Automatic annotation (TrEMBL):
One of its GO terms (cellular component) is membrane. This is Cytochrome P450. It is a single-pass membrane protein. Residues 1-27 form the signal peptide. PANTHER family: CYTOCHROME P450 FAMILY PROTEIN, EXPRESSED, FLAVONOID 3'-MONOOXYGENASE-RELATED. It is found in: Membrane. InterPro entries: Cyt_P450, Cyt_P450_CS, Cyt_P450_E_grp-I, Cyt_P450_sf, Plant_metabolite_P450s. Belongs to the cytochrome P450 family. Heme binds at C474. GO terms for molecular function: heme binding; iron ion binding; oxidoreductase activity, acting on paired donors, with incorporation or reduction of molecular oxygen, NAD(P)H as one donor, and incorporation of one atom of oxygen. Its main location: membrane. PROSITE patterns: CYTOCHROME_P450. Its cofactor is heme.
């Protein structure tokens, strides 16, 4: 965590006042019932909070949290600046909080810095629990995640798969990192098509990806300082705000022509191609790259009710929702795909068993490829994907929750508006649920295994929660699992994935980026299958 000297100096100046305020607070509350106490946690430095955030970053923060849980228990209190955050590591308490308590913990915490930074456009993930969130979520589920709608994107998935396989065939084995980069590009390309309804050329897709990633990276590194005394830091670091606004304008300049093209298409009718008769080559090419349905179409139809007077979404609101769509499904899916393929390289017996299921499925259907319908008839494929999600969830924490009112959890009080988070990866490694949890064993999800009939939504109980649980569970769960099953099956059908000589695949080392990725990116020797 970067702490510039002006911020530290300001904090030191405020220390005497903070100690006085703390002393007054303790004197005022002395004698109150201990049953209403906050969860335990490490020592707090006034203004700065826990030094955890200063001393650690990335994966080290997650490791430090695990050590603190071992010392203080399953419910842990931390402070970042003046902000309280509660971290829960126990799966039963997670179920009590997220599922049994229902709407009590379905809100999102407010961030004073969001208003100061101009980041207040509502999305599915950031909206407060209420009518606007329900509208956005219902729209996404009905127009994207619904199986009938998902089938409309089959041509885009097939095109992306063909391009991905071609890139893998022509990659040079000694090029480090090319596999994960190729996975990320493929997932982003697919989501761009689903979002904007156009299969753009590679240069355009990479330009959007670069702008999106640049903004994300800047936001997650340079803007952290605004968590500390935002009223002060927004003045001290005004240049960072201006840089962020410039990056957002760059992204808007890329998005708006695509959104406006879809808006014009809706005006003319879904089958029309402006100013081009259908028999001309240019019109045919346009029709071939234009999808019949897109996320933007659904956003254009949204009307905000109540106090909003039934208005349409503004351009900035649409851009925020499109960014959320692209961010939410790219790195997460590409990360699990890399981890899963790495485990198949590491465990050739599992890969062989999966390949046999693929061959049997193709023989039974008489098809020469694995379709999206085929993956629904492949139980071992589903088990491989579930084991990848259990063993290597892309996020080791969920997006933070917040109680609408004071609530009790595990015998401690959680004040209204407090950030509450959950140790996702730890729940999927609980030895009370899973036998040999560090082992990659898809068979556990088949008949007789410890994961047979597992409820990935966490509704009945939480034994793994890669998509979260409760009211705010990820609405893209069905989209992500379809993409993982489809691409894993076709990657194994096309190639035998082997270790490179002298370069062992490391499935233990982790590194925190936007997701938790392999510390040593996947290297593999890809051998084309004779039957592919």
């Amino acid at each position: 965590m970067e702490l510039a000297w002006p911020l530290v100096a300001g904090a030191l100046l405020l220390l005497p006042l903070s100690f006085l305020l703390l002393h007054h607070h303790h004197a005022k509350n002395r004698g109150k019932a201990t049953s209403r106490s906050l969860p335990p946690g490490p020592a707090v430095v006034p203004v700065l909070g826990n030094l955890l955030w200063v001393r650690n970053h990335g994966i080290d923060i997650l490791r430090a949290m695990r050590h603190l849980h071992a010392r203080h228990g399953p419910v842990l209190a931390l402070r970042m600046g003046s902000r309280l955050e509660i971290i829960v590591s126990d799966r039963r308490l997670a179920h009590a909080a997220l599922v049994e308590s229902g709407a009590a913990l379905a809100d999102r915490p407010g961030f004073a810095s969001r208003d100061l930074l101009g980041l207040n456009a509502a999305t599915i993930s950031t909206s407060s629990y209420g009518p606007l969130w329900r509208l956005f979520r219902r729209n996404f589920v009905a127009e994207i995640a619904n199986p009938a709608r998902l089938r409309l994107f089959a041509p885009a998935r097939a095109a992306v798969l063909a391009e991905l396989l071609d890139k893998l065939r022509h990659r040079k084995e000694e090029d480090d990192g090319t596999i994960v980069e190729t996975f990320q590009y493929a997932m982003f390309r697919l989501l761009v098509a689903m979002c904007f309804g156009e299969r753009l050329d590679e240069r355009a897709v990479r330009d959007i990806a670069a702008a999106q990633r640049d903004l994300l990276l800047y936001s997650s590194t340079k803007l952290r300082v605004f968590a500390f005394l935002p009223a002060v830091t927004t003045r001290l670091f005004r240049g960072r705000l201006q840089a962020m606004l410039a990056k957002r304008r760059r992204l808007k300049d890329m998005y708006m022509p695509l959104i406006d093209a879809r808006r014009e298409r809706k005006k003319l009718g879904s089958s029309a191609v402006p100013d081009q008769p259908q028999h001309e080559p240019a019109a045919a090419a346009a029709a071939a790259t234009t999808l019949p349905h897109a996320y933007v179409d659904a956003l254009l139809d949204i009307r905000l009710n109540g106090d909003e007077g039934g208005r349409s979404l503004t351009d900035d609101e649409m851009i925020a929702l499109c960014s959320e769509f692209l961010n939410g499904g790219t790195d997460t899916t590409a990360t699990v795909l890399q981890w899963t393929m790495a485990e198949l390289v590491k465990n050739p017996g599992i890969q062989d068993k999966l390949h046999e299921e693929i061959k049997d499925t193709m023989a039974s259907t008489g098809s020469d490829h694995i379709s999206e319908e085929d993956v629904h008839r492949m139980p071992y494929l589903k088990a491989v994907v579930l084991e990848g999600l259990r063993r290597h969830p892309p996020g080791h924490l969920v997006l933070p929750h917040a109680p609408a009112e004071d609530m009790e959890l595990g015998g401690y009080v959680i004040p209204k508006g407090t950030m509450v988070n959950f140790m996702v990866a730890d729940m999927g490694m609980d030895e009370q649920v899973w036998e040999r949890p560090r082992e990659f064993a898809p068979e556990r999800f088949l008949a007789g295994g410890d994961g047979e009939g597992v409820d990935i939504t966490g509704t009945r109980e939480i034994s793994m929660m890669p998509f979260g649980a409760g009211r705010r569970i990820c609405p893209g769960l069905n989209v992500a699992t379809l993409h993982l099953e489809y691409f894993v099956a076709n990657l194994v059908r096309a190639f035998e994935w082997r270790e490179q000589e002298g370069k062992e695949v490391d499935v233990e080392g982790e590194k925190a980026e936007f997701t938790v990725v392999m510390a040593n990116p996947l290297r593999a020797r890809l051998v084309a299958r004779d039957d592919a």
